Amino acid sequence: MRDAALPARRDRLVEVTLDTGTILRWNPDVQHEIDVAVYDLKEANLFRPQDLPAEAGAEPGPFVLHLAVLDNRLVMEIKAAEDGRPLDKVTLALTPLRRLIREYFTICESYYEAIRRASPMQIEAIDMGRRGLHDEAAVILRERLDGKVEIDHGTARRLFTLICVLHIRG
Questions:
Q1: Does residue 5 form part of some domain?
Q2: Each residue of 32-80: pLDDT tens digit?
Q3: CA–CA dist 66, 110 (Å, integer)
Q4: Which residues contact residue 100 at a Cβ distance below 8 angstroms, ignoring those fewer than 6 apart?
Protein backbone atom coordinates (compact mmCIF):
# COMPACT_ATOMS: atom_id res chain seq x y z
CA MET A 1 0.00 0.00 0.00
CA ARG A 2 1.29 3.45 -0.90
CA ASP A 3 2.11 5.85 1.93
CA ALA A 4 -0.56 8.60 1.98
CA ALA A 5 2.14 11.21 2.73
CA LEU A 6 3.94 10.48 -0.54
CA PRO A 7 2.59 12.16 -3.68
CA ALA A 8 1.49 9.82 -6.46
CA ARG A 9 3.98 9.51 -9.29
CA ARG A 10 2.89 11.51 -12.30
CA ASP A 11 5.07 9.75 -14.90
CA ARG A 12 2.76 6.77 -15.21
CA LEU A 13 -0.21 5.32 -17.01
CA VAL A 14 -3.47 4.95 -15.11
CA GLU A 15 -5.51 3.57 -18.00
CA VAL A 16 -4.80 1.81 -21.30
CA THR A 17 -7.40 1.21 -24.01
CA LEU A 18 -7.21 -0.61 -27.32
CA ASP A 19 -8.77 0.28 -30.64
CA THR A 20 -11.18 -2.56 -31.20
CA GLY A 21 -12.66 -1.27 -34.47
CA THR A 22 -11.06 -4.02 -36.56
CA ILE A 23 -11.45 -6.80 -34.01
CA LEU A 24 -14.46 -9.08 -34.32
CA ARG A 25 -13.93 -11.11 -31.15
CA TRP A 26 -11.08 -12.28 -28.96
CA ASN A 27 -10.92 -15.80 -27.65
CA PRO A 28 -10.63 -16.32 -23.86
CA ASP A 29 -6.85 -16.88 -24.03
CA VAL A 30 -6.33 -13.56 -25.81
CA GLN A 31 -8.70 -11.74 -23.45
CA HIS A 32 -6.72 -13.15 -20.53
CA GLU A 33 -3.47 -11.81 -22.06
CA ILE A 34 -5.08 -8.37 -22.46
CA ASP A 35 -6.43 -8.34 -18.92
CA VAL A 36 -3.09 -9.37 -17.41
CA ALA A 37 -1.08 -6.86 -19.49
CA VAL A 38 -3.42 -3.95 -18.67
CA TYR A 39 -3.60 -4.90 -14.98
CA ASP A 40 0.20 -5.17 -14.75
CA LEU A 41 0.64 -1.88 -16.59
CA LYS A 42 -1.70 -0.08 -14.22
CA GLU A 43 0.07 -1.57 -11.20
CA ALA A 44 3.62 -0.64 -12.23
CA ASN A 45 4.87 1.36 -15.17
CA LEU A 46 7.05 4.25 -16.22
CA PHE A 47 5.55 6.39 -18.94
CA ARG A 48 7.04 9.82 -19.53
CA PRO A 49 6.18 11.59 -22.81
CA GLN A 50 9.00 13.83 -24.02
CA ASP A 51 8.61 17.35 -25.40
CA LEU A 52 4.93 17.83 -24.61
CA PRO A 53 3.39 21.10 -25.80
CA ALA A 54 3.63 23.99 -23.32
CA GLU A 55 -0.12 23.88 -22.68
CA ALA A 56 0.31 20.38 -21.24
CA GLY A 57 1.54 22.00 -18.03
CA ALA A 58 4.79 21.85 -16.11
CA GLU A 59 4.06 18.46 -14.56
CA PRO A 60 1.67 16.59 -16.82
CA GLY A 61 0.47 13.17 -15.89
CA PRO A 62 -0.66 10.70 -14.97
CA PHE A 63 -1.71 9.57 -18.44
CA VAL A 64 -4.32 7.62 -20.34
CA LEU A 65 -3.03 5.75 -23.39
CA HIS A 66 -5.09 4.59 -26.36
CA LEU A 67 -3.35 2.16 -28.73
CA ALA A 68 -4.28 1.54 -32.34
CA VAL A 69 -2.63 0.03 -35.41
CA LEU A 70 -3.29 1.85 -38.67
CA ASP A 71 -1.49 1.07 -41.93
CA ASN A 72 1.18 -0.97 -40.12
CA ARG A 73 1.86 1.92 -37.76
CA LEU A 74 1.38 2.00 -34.02
CA VAL A 75 -0.63 5.06 -32.99
CA MET A 76 -0.33 6.05 -29.34
CA GLU A 77 -2.82 8.71 -28.29
CA ILE A 78 -1.75 10.19 -24.97
CA LYS A 79 -4.25 12.09 -22.84
CA ALA A 80 -4.21 13.68 -19.42
CA ALA A 81 -5.89 11.35 -16.94
CA GLU A 82 -7.20 14.31 -14.98
CA ASP A 83 -9.45 15.79 -17.66
CA GLY A 84 -9.00 13.63 -20.78
CA ARG A 85 -7.46 16.41 -22.85
CA PRO A 86 -5.22 15.22 -25.69
CA LEU A 87 -1.52 15.77 -25.00
CA ASP A 88 0.30 14.00 -27.80
CA LYS A 89 0.00 11.45 -30.58
CA VAL A 90 3.02 9.26 -31.26
CA THR A 91 3.14 7.21 -34.46
CA LEU A 92 5.72 4.47 -35.04
CA ALA A 93 6.33 2.19 -37.98
CA LEU A 94 5.94 -1.40 -36.84
CA THR A 95 8.26 -2.87 -39.47
CA PRO A 96 11.10 -3.44 -36.94
CA LEU A 97 8.70 -5.52 -34.80
CA ARG A 98 6.95 -7.42 -37.60
CA ARG A 99 9.08 -10.59 -37.31
CA LEU A 100 8.70 -10.67 -33.52
CA ILE A 101 4.93 -10.20 -33.77
CA ARG A 102 4.68 -13.18 -36.15
CA GLU A 103 6.90 -15.29 -33.90
CA TYR A 104 4.89 -14.23 -30.85
CA PHE A 105 1.67 -15.52 -32.43
CA THR A 106 3.35 -18.82 -33.27
CA ILE A 107 4.80 -19.30 -29.81
CA CYS A 108 1.52 -18.33 -28.12
CA GLU A 109 -0.34 -20.98 -30.14
CA SER A 110 2.26 -23.53 -29.03
CA TYR A 111 2.01 -22.33 -25.44
CA TYR A 112 -1.78 -22.61 -25.23
CA GLU A 113 -1.69 -26.01 -26.90
CA ALA A 114 1.03 -27.12 -24.47
CA ILE A 115 -1.00 -25.99 -21.46
CA ARG A 116 -3.70 -28.42 -22.54
CA ARG A 117 -1.49 -31.41 -23.39
CA ALA A 118 2.24 -31.07 -22.59
CA SER A 119 4.36 -31.77 -19.56
CA PRO A 120 5.27 -28.95 -17.16
CA MET A 121 8.84 -29.04 -18.51
CA GLN A 122 7.66 -28.52 -22.08
CA ILE A 123 5.36 -25.69 -21.00
CA GLU A 124 8.23 -24.02 -19.15
CA ALA A 125 10.52 -24.29 -22.20
CA ILE A 126 7.91 -22.67 -24.45
CA ASP A 127 7.24 -19.96 -21.85
CA MET A 128 10.97 -19.19 -21.67
CA GLY A 129 10.94 -18.64 -25.43
CA ARG A 130 7.92 -16.40 -25.09
CA ARG A 131 9.62 -14.35 -22.39
CA GLY A 132 12.72 -14.05 -24.59
CA LEU A 133 10.60 -12.66 -27.43
CA HIS A 134 9.04 -10.16 -25.04
CA ASP A 135 12.48 -9.05 -23.91
CA GLU A 136 13.76 -8.62 -27.47
CA ALA A 137 10.64 -6.70 -28.48
CA ALA A 138 10.86 -4.50 -25.38
CA VAL A 139 14.37 -3.42 -26.32
CA ILE A 140 13.28 -2.54 -29.86
CA LEU A 141 10.16 -0.71 -28.66
CA ARG A 142 12.17 1.37 -26.19
CA GLU A 143 14.66 2.25 -28.94
CA ARG A 144 11.83 3.23 -31.32
CA LEU A 145 10.25 5.44 -28.63
CA ASP A 146 13.54 7.10 -27.67
CA GLY A 147 13.07 10.86 -27.65
CA LYS A 148 9.28 10.49 -27.84
CA VAL A 149 8.23 8.56 -24.73
CA GLU A 150 10.43 7.20 -21.97
CA ILE A 151 9.30 3.78 -20.77
CA ASP A 152 10.93 1.12 -18.66
CA HIS A 153 11.55 -2.48 -19.71
CA GLY A 154 8.47 -3.91 -17.98
CA THR A 155 6.20 -1.29 -19.54
CA ALA A 156 7.66 -2.02 -22.98
CA ARG A 157 7.06 -5.77 -22.54
CA ARG A 158 3.41 -5.26 -21.65
CA LEU A 159 2.89 -2.76 -24.46
CA PHE A 160 4.30 -5.33 -26.89
CA THR A 161 1.64 -7.81 -25.76
CA LEU A 162 -1.07 -5.23 -26.49
CA ILE A 163 0.48 -4.33 -29.85
CA CYS A 164 0.34 -8.02 -30.81
CA VAL A 165 -3.31 -8.24 -29.80
CA LEU A 166 -4.09 -5.34 -32.13
CA HIS A 167 -2.78 -7.46 -35.02
CA ILE A 168 -5.37 -10.20 -34.55
CA ARG A 169 -7.83 -10.19 -37.44
CA GLY A 170 -10.98 -12.14 -37.90
A1: no
A2: 888 999 999 999 999 999 987 666 555 678 999 999 999 889 999 999 9
A3: 29
A4: 133, 136, 137, 140, 160
The whole domain housing 143 covers 13-165
Q: CA-CA distance, 148 to 146, in Å (whole number)?
A: 5
Mean pLDDT of the region 140-167: 95
28 part of a folded domain: yes
For CA atoms 140, 71, 74, 162, the dihedral sign is negative
Query: Which pTM value belongs to this model?
Result: 0.87
Torsion from C-alpha of 100, 104, 106, 107, nearest 10 degrees: 120
The Cα–Cα gap between 159 and 138 comes to 8
- Would you say how long the chain is, in residues? 170
Gyration radius from the chain CA atoms = 17
Cβ pair 49, 98 in contact under 8 A: no
Enumerate the β-bridge partners of residue 18: 67
Structurally, the chain folds into a number of domains equal to 1
